[in-house]
Amino acid sequence: MSNDETTPGPRASRRAAKPRKRRRGLKITLGVLLVLLLATGGTLYWLYSQLDGNIKGVDINKALGEDRPEKLPTSGQNLLVLGSDSRAGAENKELGGGGFVGGARSDTAMVVHIPEGRSKAVAVSIPRDTLVTRPECVKDDGSTVAGKERVMFNSVYAQVGPACVVKTVEKMSGVRVDHYLEINFAGFKDLVDAIGGVTVDVPQDIDDKASGLSLTAGPQKLNGTESLAYVRTRHGIGDGSDLGRIGLQQQFLMALLSEVKSQDLLGSPTNSYKIAKSATQSLTTDSGLASLTSLAEFARSMNGVDPASMETIMLPVAYDKIDPNRVIASEPQSGQLWKAIREDTTIPEEAKKSPATGG
User: Quick one: DSSP state of residue 18?
Assistant: First the structure.
């Protein structure tokens, strides 16, 4: 797999005194979490003038033009969520071995589908090492980048930018992306620290010498630096590939949501401000969501979505026959999955099964 993975060395492992039953079943993505966070009651509205300017916007519609999948009347809403590992800035460079890796990558990518009626949601994780066809794209400076076959999915962000990531996802899936949301590397760490850490049920002992991550199986409370290492570790679990850590990312994001929901944001304006500040400072969205008001309105429109009914699926992939360190979308499973999302229909069980599991 790609060798640009280095993560910070967390402090020594420790087991929580009282085990807690592992949360199973359906999970939520970080993107939806942030949107819900910003709309928690009316508490954050009084912070509008201070926080609104923190959010960066990208005009996806202008960048992509008309060459896009059709928006079907019953297709619900589709949100592309990226976690970027940019090393831009002093803080980001200190995280995850920034001195050894240049540029930026889309470290985590999920297509969140919210069906018509918004009573449930599903998130499709796209492995970063998936080989894709990058379409012709236009960069921010107006120059055109030719399309190319068999490029790693996570390289598209670094080479061309977020609009091209959206275009690549739309081309590979046929799904119209309505909104884009990105949180950067350091911002993820700051958000976890702002809420006082997150407790996760580590599924197995992890000893990742490449990152220094050492955790004992069982409930563990992780700070921001440790959490970042946990969701990025690949050498300490499964076959050492990107596929193994996707399960950790999904599990962690559910735990993160639970921690935010458990905090008394309404009763603690100071804590609310700290959390909202760390979230908005690290947030980039499409221009349609690039304000606190727009994010809150979008979140309120999802009030009927029960987090307990949210499902996360890994895009079905198979090991590439030419380069076994890479994966490709597996057919017919991936085609069935994208078709169900496009048409807002039930996803067939066979479309959720991936030949390559990372186990």
Answer: S
